[in-house]
Amino acid sequence: MLPHIQKILYATDLSGPAKHALGYALSIAKIYQADLMLLHVIPDWARNVTLASGLDFATIYNENTWLKIKDDVLRVSKKHAKERIESAYRQYKYELEAAHIATTVHVQTGHPVHTILQFAHEVDMIVMGTYGHSKLGSFFAGSVAQGVIAKSRTPVMVVHLEKDETTKLL
C-alpha cells in the first residue's frame, strides 16, 4: 500500500541547501495535495553564549536587563527569519493556493534537531537540505540532518546541494 502523505514539514536553516530543498517540498506537497509546514529553528543563542563564555550575564547585567536583551534579540530574530521564509516561497504562493495547498510558517527557538522532531509528530514526511559534500562539511552543516535522520520515526527526505550553490542564501 502506498503511503498517504497529508502533511509535510519543510525544515530550513535559511541556507542555500534549504532553499534548494524547498522546491522538492513544494513539488511533493502539490503532487499529494498535502499541507506544508515551513519551520526554522533559532538556536538558543543566550544559553550558548553563556555556556561558551562561562559568564553569568544575568548577574552581570541584572536579571531584568538580561531578560529584556534576550527577548528583544529573539523577537527581532524571529521576525526576520519569518520574513525570509515567506520571501523564499512567495514565488510559489499563487500556484500553491490554486492547488489548495495550505502553508504555515513556524519560527521556534531551541535545539534544531529536538524541535524538528517535535514537529515531526504532526506530519507524514520531513524535507530538508544539506551540504553533505565533504566529511568536514557534513560534520558541521549536516549535523542537524544527521540527527533528524537518526532519531525520526517520520520519513526524511534530504536534498543535497551542489558545491557551487552553497554560497547562495535565502
From TrEMBL:
Query: Which segments of the protein form a coiled coil according to its record?
Result: none
**Origin: domain of life:** Bacteria
Q: Which Pfam families match?
A: Usp
Q: Where is the UspA domain?
A: 5-160
Family of the protein in this entry: Belongs to the universal stress protein A family.
Q: PANTHER family from the xrefs?
A: STRESS RESPONSE PROTEIN NHAX, UNIVERSAL STRESS PROTEIN UP12
The molecule here is called: Universal stress protein
Can you name the source organism?
Halodesulfovibrio aestuarii
